[in-house]
Amino acid sequence: MEDILYKYMSRWTSLNEEDQQAIVDEIRIEEFKKGTVLFKQGDAPTTCYFILKGCVRQYSIDEEGREVTSNFYSEEQAIAIFNHHKTEKSSDYTFTCVEDSVMVVGDLNIEQDMYDKHPQLEIMTRRMIEENFSQVQEEFAAFIASTPEERFKKLQMKRPSLIDRVPQHQLASYLGITPESLSRIKKRIDQDSR
């Protein structure tokens, strides 16, 4: 698993092997079982995560009590709640492991200490956030402007592994459609490809 971290640090920083090793030695890597809740909607998170292996679902409960899936995180993606601007610092989402997962667990209370000790780590984090934010903006704009079938086709193109990794009702929620509509879309696309 550590090789993923080294690859990622090499991509985003100019750290030498010795400095990379020093960071890897200080971080905590944990395994989480499928169904583990990392934190719940309403909790004030004190940790962030970087997925080495597995898949995590982000969702919230709406006013009618329905679960609304807003994202899935998988390998080489970070999970962090940016709620410093909120008075009570609570999360608007619940994060649950969809699969058995292995993640780097960061303690937000010592985040600045790590950045002070390893300035390149802060640069890496900022670059990751910038790339992620740009991607989220692009995906949101495309989501608003597209039909459900176009959303599914884009998912097939950009994140095909999700289709088999996550339960279909959660995938449908993520696409903003009912499970029945998702089944019809998949069937139609399958027939068109023959």
UniProtKB/TrEMBL annotation:
PROSITE patterns: CNMP_BINDING_3 (PS50042). Keywords: Activator. It holds the Pfam family cNMP_binding. Residues 11-57 form the Cyclic nucleotide-binding domain. The keyword Nucleotidyltransferase does not apply. One of its GO terms (molecular function) is DNA-binding transcription factor activity. GO terms for cellular component: cytosol. The keyword Repeat does not apply. This is Cyclic nucleotide-binding domain-containing protein. It comes from Paenibacillus lutrae. The lineage of its organism: Bacteria, Bacillati, Bacillota, Bacilli, Bacillales.
